[in-house]
Automatic annotation (TrEMBL):
It is found in: Cell membrane. It comes from the Bacteria. Its main location: membrane. This is Branched-chain amino acid ABC transporter permease. Keywords: Cell membrane, Membrane, Transmembrane, Transmembrane helix. It is a multi-pass membrane protein. InterPro entries: ABC_transp_permease, LivM-like. The keyword DNA damage does not apply. It comes from Paramylibacter ulvae. The chain crosses the membrane at residues 12-29, 49-71, 91-116, 123-144, 200-220, 247-267, 287-312, 324-347, 353-371.
Length: 399
């Protein structure tokens, strides 16, 4: 069960190649061209791709593999962010201690919430997790203001002690780093009309994404993962055998929470700020949407779903009327204005409408998510002939 199939190895290699070559892949159009609007190879967005990929991969262990739908996973994301910022304030600007604390605190928090919430299943479990997340949001926003700084958000200051760094005292605010490498450092490679950006922070996030993805693969292919799949298939029948399934579901919940804590710690490491808005129910809903859109129960699906949503959020939301007029300026004025008026509702502030329509199309025609679409394309071109169990298949949640 612990041996990876050929398809697993190819999937892992695919993730490594995509993450390492992202600055090239996400910048297909030359700078200054009309299509450069669709380039996504700048550091901030690439970091978000990797961080939310980690978050979705962790959530998939609970939802896709075990079948428990949590509407409160953003609470662990927020807890991880707050823990990381406090470590930056008190100890050092090195991201390693901050990430370790984020994972530990999120894991303990998930253990407490999971111990209570997992007494119920189905919609009752989902409502309980949502209630805990909203309580966490309210506490962070008001009651725990000395710890979270309320609506302003927690951030580093010049007066923070930073024991290992010796404090700052005066000058500019310190920046996060990894043994001397600053997360904000970016090297730009100019190749003709293209500009490719290689950011230290992104590659740190990318390495953690690869490690998180590899660990997820190990879980999927382990006896523990097989037990989680059995719970999803028929937990009642499993309990009739005399096996107590609750420790397994609690372990999956804690592992998933620790993934979210790591994602929250990385968010704070890239930008040392933590706010209560990261714990809102809308953030939890976005995590669920990422997993379903990509393909719940598949290994690669949540990563694709996270990238898909973050691309729309950051690219389509920036397309305004001025950009649209530039694209259609070759048309007669009346036709140009008519087309811009129609498209105005689908881009810019209306990007949610486009995402919603695409989500409906995926759910209706590709119930297995984007991974099912990828499998259909692969089957169409005859790339999965005779592969047997080694071939990923969106209809089997073991990918």
């Amino acid at each position: 069960m612990n041996t990876f199939s050929k398809a697993d190895k190819n999937t892992l290699l695919f993730v490594i190649i995509i993450t390492m070559l992202a600055p090239f892949i996400l910048n297909p159009f030359p700078e200054g061209s009309a299509m450069a609007q669709f380039n996504a190879g700048y550091p901030d967005l690439m970091q978000r791709f990797a961080i939310f990929g980690i978050l979705a991969v962790g959530f998939n262990i609970l939802f896709g593999l075990t079948g428990y739908l949590s509407f409160g996973h953003a609470a662990f994301l927020g807890v991880g962010s707050y823990s990381a910022v406090w470590m930056f304030k008190l100890l050092s600007m090195n991201i390693i201690p901050a990430l370790i604390l984020s994972v530990i605190i999120a894991g303990v928090f998930a253990l407490v919430i999971g111990f209570i919430s997992l007494r119920r299943s189905g919609i009752y479990f989902s409502i309980l997790t949502l209630a805990f997340a909203q309580m966490s949001f309210s506490l962070a926003y008001s009651v725990l203001t000395p710890i979270t700084n309320g609506e302003t958000g927690l951030q580093i200051t010049l007066n923070d002690p930073r024991i290992l760094d010796g404090g700052t005292g005066a000058g500019n605010l310190p920046v996060t780093g990894l043994f001397g490498m600053e997360m904000r450092n970016t090297f730009t490679l100019d190749v003709g009309a293209w500009a490719f950006q290689f950011n230290v922070g992104y590659y740190v996030c990318a390495i953690f994404l690869i490690l998180a993805f590899y660990l997820s693969m190990r879980i999927f292919r382990s006896p523990f993962g097989l037990m989680l799949r059995a719970i999803k298939t028929n937990q009642t029948r499993l309990n009739y055998t005399g096996l107590n399934s609750r420790p397994y579901t609690l372990a999956a919940f804690v592992i998933s929470g620790m993934y979210a804590g790591l994602a929250g710690g990385l968010m704070a490491s890239m930008d040392p700020l933590a706010g209560a808005e990261r714990m809102q129910w809308t953030a939890s809903g976005e995590i669920v949407l990422m997993t379903i859109l990509g393909g719940a129960g598949t290994l690669l699906g949540p990563v694709l779903g996270a990238g898909f949503i973050k691309y729309f959020e950051n690219i389509f939301s920036k397309i305004n009327d001025n950009v649209l007029h530039t694209w259609f300026s070759f048309m007669p004025d009346g036709l140009e204005n008519a087309i811009v008026w129609v498209l105005h509702f689908f881009v810019g502030k209306g990007w949610h409408l486009t995402l919603g329509m695409l989500f409906m199309l995926v759910v209706i025609f590709l119930p297995g998510g984007l991974m099912e679409g990828a499998d259909r394309i692969r089957a169409r071109f005859g790339r999965n002939k005779g592969d047997g169990d080694d071939t990923p298949n969106a209809t089997t949640p073991a990918e």
